[in-house]
Amino acid sequence: MLAPCLTSPVRHHPxxxxxxxxxxxxxxxxxxxxxxxxxxxAWLRCxxxxxxxPTTPWERMASILIIDDRPEDLAALKSALxxxxxxxxxxxxxxxxxxxxxxxxxDLILLDATIVAIDHGQFPGRLLRGATGGSTPVIVIxxxxxxxxxxxxxxxxxxxxxxxxxxxxxxxxxxxxxxxLQAARARxxxxxxxxxxxxxxxxxxxxxxxxxxxxxLARLAEVRDPxxxxxxxxxxxxxxxxxxKLSTHPRFAAFLTAGNIELLGKSAPLHDIGKVxxxxxxxxxxxxxxxxxxxxxKAHSLLGFQAIQQAEQDGEQPxxxxxxxxxxxxxxxxxxxxxxxxxxxxxxxxxxxxxxxALADVYDALIAERVYKRAFPVEQAGQIIREGRGSHFxxxxxxAFVAREADFIAIAKEHAKAKQPVADExxxxxxxxxEPDGRP
Length: 440
Hints:
Layout: H1 17-29, H2 37-44, E1 63-67, H3 71-81, E2 86-90, H4 93-99, E3 108-112, H5 124-127, E4 138-145, H6 150-155, E5 160-164, H7 168-224, H8 228-246, H9 258-267, H10 280-283, H11 291-298, H12 300-314, H13 320-331, H14 352-367, H15 378-387, H16 395-403, H17 405-414
Parallel strand pairs: 1-2, 1-3, 3-4, 4-5
C-alpha cells in the first residue's frame, strides 16, 4: 500500500479550464472514462513554477502522483521511490482527482500510457506549457514491453519516458533528474523575480531622487524671484498640454513619445534656473530695463545651460532629463524666424522641447502680473500668440495651442494668485509684454 501524500508547499496555479475542456472532449470522443472537464481542470492545475520551490528533493520529500493500475508497476515504483518520496497512487484520472483533493498538486507525475485515453496530440504535458515555460514534470511509462512509442510521447510534451519492464535504479535516477530540473527552474524564476523587484525599487528610488533634485534646483530661481514659483508650475502644465496634443502629429510623433513627454514635464521647471545668476537690481527691477540690463538678463539662458551642462559632465552617465533640460534652458528664447537669442536658431534647428517652452513661456509672461507690468487678459494673450505664428513660434505648435487654449486658461486659473486674470476679465495693461521675460 502506498503512503498517502503529506501537505505540500502552497503554489499558485494558472487557469486550466480551457485545456480541461479540450481534454475532456477528447476523452469522451475516444470512449474515455472521464468527461467531466471540471475534474480535468483541477488535475491539470499543477504548475509549480508559479510559486517558490523552497528546497531541493534532497532537502524534503517530493510528492509524486502515480497514475497506474498495474500491481507490478506499483511494487516496482514503491521499491524505487518509497524511501525518498511521498507517493500517491491512482488507477484512473478520476481517482487521481480524489486522491489529490485539496492538495496544491504533485511535484511529479508518473503516468501509465494505457491509462490516458487521449491521443498524443492532446497530451496534457504539452498543453500545460505556459508563459513561464514550466509545468509539473510528467514521466510516461510505456504501454508495452520494449516501449516503442517513446519518441511520440516525447515529441508531444512528456518530460521523460520509462520503458517496461521498470528497473528501480533507472526509475529513481530519472525521477531525481526531473525533480532537480524542476527545482532549478523554480529557483531561477524566483531569482529573476527578486532581481526584477530590486531593479524596480532602485529605479523608483532614482526617479524620486531625480524629481526632488529638479524641484530643489527650480526652487533656487523661485527664492530669487517669488513670482517664479507659480510661473514654473503653469509653464510645466502648458508644455505637457502642447506635447500631448502634438504627440500624434507627423512632425512631432517620433519625438513626443510617452517617455519624452514625461521628461518634458520634469525638465520644464528648470528653464529659468539661470536667473539665479542675475543681480536683484535687474531681476526685480520695477521699471524698464536699459539696453545693457537687457543683455545681462538675456544671459540667464546661457547661465542655466552651463550649470546643467556641468551637472551632466559631473555625472557618471548621461541622463535624458538633463539633456532635455539643457536644450530647453538654452534655446527657449529662440524664435521661429531666427530673431531670438542666444544663438539665433531658426525653424526646425530649434529643438522641439525648446519650441514648446517658447510658447508656454511667452503665454505665461503675458497673463502674469509682475512688478514691472500688469497682466494681460487671457483673450489678448491668446491673440498675441496667434499673431506670432510663423514668426515667433512654430506654426504647428500655435495650432496646437489654439486647439487646447481652454486647457491653458484652466491651468492658469489653477495656479493663479489673487490678482491673476481670468478668461472673462478685460483688465487694461500698462505696457506691452511681447518678450518671454515680459520686458518691452
